[in-house]
Structures are given as C-alpha cells and as structure tokens.
Specification:
The complex is a heterodimer. Chain A is of the alpha/beta class. Chain A has 10 helices and 12 strands. The longest helix of chain A is centred in the first third of the chain and has 17 residues, at 3-19. Chain B is mostly helical. In chain B, helix 1 (2-32) runs parallel beside helix 4 and helix 1 runs antiparallel to helix 7. Classes of the chains: A alpha/beta, B mainly alpha.
C-alpha cells in the first residue's frame, strides 16, 4: 500500500470516530452504558466485547422521531388495539416507545420495567424521558415483576417486550413459561408486541415458542430491518377492513414519530416462515444465546 | 487399583459439584432472575456447604474408615440430589411468595435446594485423603494429586454443563444424570471394597 493510501485509510477509519462524542460512560451492574453524540444524534449503546450496538438513537432536533425501524414496527401493535387504557413496557432503553405512548394515550396507566437503574438515569438525562403522573418505572427483573403483577391480578391492554442486554434478550425472558406468565397479564382483548431478531437459528426456536404459547400470531418482518415483531393476542384478529380503517385513523397521529402505519398492513403475516420442528424454549431448555448464531 | 478408583471417584465428584452449581443459576432464574445477587446466593451456599462438608468428612474419617463408608457418601449425595427434579418448583414458588426481598428469597431457596447434597459432596475430599494417605511423609503429595484431580473435575463439570449439556438436555435430565453418576460411583466403591475383603 502506498503511503498516501495509508493516510486515506487512516482518515476514513478515524474521522467518523472523531465526530462521535462520548457524553456518558458508566459501568453498571449489568452492562457498560455509553451515550454517544454523533452530529445531531444521541445514541445509547451497551458495549459487548469490542463491537458497539446502538440500543436506541434520538435526533436532537426531532426527539419524537423514531430512528430505528424496529421501534416503528412495535407501533403496529396499535393496529390490533387502538386505545389501550393500560400499558406495560418491558425494557426502557432510551424511553422512545414509552414517551410516544404517553403522548398518544395520556390517560393510560403505564408500567415500565427496567432492570438497570443506570439506564433509567441515562434515559432521563440524555433522552428526554420523563415519567408521566400515571407512569411507574420499576427497576427490577422483568420475570420477578411479571410474577408479582400476576399475583396482584394486574392486567394490561398492551404489553411491549423489548428487554435486551448487550447480547440479546436474557434467556429467562424467552421461555414458554415466561411468555405464558406474560400472556396472563393481558386483558381479554389485550395485545402483546415483542421485538426479536430474525437472523439466527434462534428465530426458529423463538417462533415455535410463541406459537406454543399463543397459537396463531402475526409475524411482522420489514425489509428495512433485521428484527421481527411478534404481534399476539388472545382475542380474534381484526379483519382486513377494520385494519385499513384503523391504519387510516392512526396514520396522522403517528406521522410525527416517522411511522407510516399504512405501509405495514401488507407485511403483517400469519403464515409461518420458520422451521416448525425447532425445539420450544422452556425453563428446562433455554440455551438461547448458544443458539443465537 | 484402590488408589486409582479413589482418584476417579473424587475427580468425578468435583465434576458433579460444579455441574450442579452451574445448573443452580438456571434453576433459580425463572423465579429470581439472574441478577448478581442470585449468583451471589448460589456461590455463597455452595461454598458454605462445601466448608461444612470438609469439616464433617474429616471428623467422620476418624471412625473406622473404609471404602464401603466412602461409597455410602456418594449414595447419600445421590439420594439428596435426585428429588430436586420434582420438588424444586414448589419450593421456589413458596420462597418467592413468602419472602419479599429477592436476595433473601434466593438465598433461602439456594440453601434448601443445593446445600444438602453439596455438604455430602464436600465430605468426599477429606475422606479421600484419609483412605489414600499411608505415611505422614507422603500426605502432602497425596493431597496435592487429590486437589488436582477434584479441581480439574470441577473445571470440566463447569465447562461441559455451560457449553454443551444445556444445549442438548433439559435441566432435570442433567440433574438426574448427575444423580445416576453418583450412584454408579457408589457401586464402584462398594465393588472395590468387596473385592479387597
């Protein structure tokens, strides 16, 4: 390599890094929490080994806009349940989803479970997350929270599962038992949306596990995203007409978040595209991260 | 022959202890999560149980030590381990519902579930020393090889369980296999005892 090329390479490699400014770096009990500013975007990252994964990003000028396709995809849950009166969000991250839901449904009661107190602090400080008066943030393990709420007979119209550590979803939050515990937290017409990856062999196992617990579910994959959103309910799924009507109604309200809900309609799929033979994940068998390859 | 059998038995008991400990995390996670204090509870209980086991095993070796008695340690450990597969869940549910603070709930659950069998497994090491040592002069060397074998066994138990067993089997299947291993080791011990007398 000629020296001039070398300089070019160095420039290419290091200039973007120079643009990124670290706003906050913290070793929490669970992960290394990093907040990075790049141009007009602030991102939350959990470090794993040497590669950094963005958990969430926010545009400083348009903080409402959802920059990640999976976050926007999670909003498709509203097609199945338009006006939730009670919401549970598992995994806070930068608080993008809870903030949007608080704005959309100011009267709804919301519980948020986040295991890491550092993430809650960072969301408040750097991502403009504020808990509304009828929102409660619980800093505890989601599994423990779910069991406690079940004991108290708590129910939710909308449950969003978005609990990630630096690697993936914690293994005890992927099992059939956990999903059943979560299902029993749903009201009769309640809807669950879960954000999962769609790119590893784990996809098959997670799919059969959801199938095992919920029976039919809508499998929402988007060409822009390596994630898949599972949409499940115990009620009957709305018909095509109803979905179109809801999308028309929701469309203008969701525009400020960058969600084009109408474009999601043809992508909501009930047909399985996974290996139906994949073993169901249970508390007895959950080598999830060993399968996530 | 007897020496070799004792080393093999001690090494495999080390394997069982750590395989069991690794599964401990998985057994508690559905109820208490896998927080640092859950692992803290597990390690505390295993260490304490082993410490008690060392003490008891040493004391017991003073009274007519024999291969037969040594083998019985394995048999009793198996008897304490196996029932876990059916009572663990109700035990965990009870602790979860009774104790509000997850730290103490997981500590109590770990005590009830893991301590009894681990105490028995802890008794094996000092008892092995007693059976192996023939002269004071050789005692250090014997203890050295014994620690080597049993700690290496522990390392392998940790590795195989966390890398492979959880990928291939259910937790209860692994626990049952560990109990069966202990029964087989007990039989090996008895057989060696009978052959020598």
């Amino acid at each position: 390599m000629k020296p001039s090329h070398l300089w070019l390479l160095i420039l290419v490699l290091f200039v973007p890094a120079a643009y990124a400014r670290i706003l906050h770096s913290e070793k929490s009990l669970y992960q290394n929490v990093l907040v990075v500013e790049r141009q007009r975007e602030v991102c939350l990252q959990f470090t794993v080994r040497r590669d950094l994964r963005n958990q969430t990003c926010m545009n400083v000028d348009r903080p409402d806009e959802m920059l990640f396709s999976y976050t926007r995809m999670m909003m498709a849950a509203l097609l199945l349940r338009e006006d939730p009166a009670s919401i549970l969000v598992v995994g806070l991250g930068g608080g993008t989803l809870p903030m949007a839901l608080q704005q959309l449904f100011p009267a709804a009661r919301m519980d948020i479970v986040e295991i890491d107190a550092a993430v809650v602090r960072v969301a408040k400080k750097y991502f403009r997350f504020t808990a509304a008066a009828n929102t409660t943030v619980y800093t505890q393990d989601a599994r423990v929270f779910g069991r406690r709420m079940n004991k108290q007979g708590q129910r939710y119209d909308l449950i969003l599962l978005d609990a990630y550590n630096g690697e993936y979803i914690p293994e005890h939050l992927m099992t059939a038992e956990y999903l059943s515990e979560t299902r029993s937290l749903l009201t009769e017409t309640g809807v669950l949306a879960a954000n999962t990856f769609a790119i590893s062999t784990l996809y098959d196992h997670e799919s059969t596990t959801y199938k095992h617990v919920f029976g039919r579910f809508l499998n929402f994959r988007h060409p822009d995203s390596a994630n898949r959103v599972v949409l499940a309910t115990q009620a009957t799924f709305p018909g095509k007409e109803q979905l179109i009507a809801r999308a028309a109604h929701l469309g203008p309200r969701l525009r400020r978040y960058g969600v084009d809900i109408k474009s999601y309609l043809p992508l909501l799929d009930g047909r399985p595209d996974w290996n139906p033979e994949a073993r169901v994940l249970t508390d007895q068998y959950s080598p999830a991260n060993l399968l996530n390859r | 022959m007897k020496t070799l059998v004792i080393y093999a038995m001690a090494g495999l008991s080390g394997f069982v202890v750590m395989a069991f400990e690794m599964l401990g995390g998985r057994i508690l996670a559905p109820w208490f999560g896998s927080d640092i204090y859950v692992w803290g509870s597990i390690i505390t209980i295993f260490m304490t149980a082993l410490a008690i086991g060392y003490l008891l095993g040493g004391r017991w070796s003073l009274q007519t030590p024999s291969m037969a008695r040594y083998a019985s340690l394995f048999a009793v450990a198996a008897l304490l381990l196996a029932p876990m597969t059916w009572y663990a869940d109700s035990m965990l549910e009870w602790t979860f519902n009774t104790i509000e603070d997850i730290r103490y709930a997981s500590l109590l659950a770990a005590t009830v579930l893991f301590a009894p069998a681990t105490i028995l497994l802890g008794m094996i090491s000092p008892y092995s020393v007693r059976l192996l040592v023939e002269t004071t002069h050789r005692s250090g060397a014997v203890a050295g090889v014994l620690y080597f074998v049993s700690t290496l066994g522990s390392a392998l138990g940790t590795l195989f369980t966390s890398f492979y067993f959880v990928l291939w089997f259910e937790i209860n299947q692994i626990v049952s296999a560990l109990a069966i291993t202990l029964v087989l080791l007990a039989l090996l011990g008895y057989t060696t005892h009978r052959l020598r007398n």
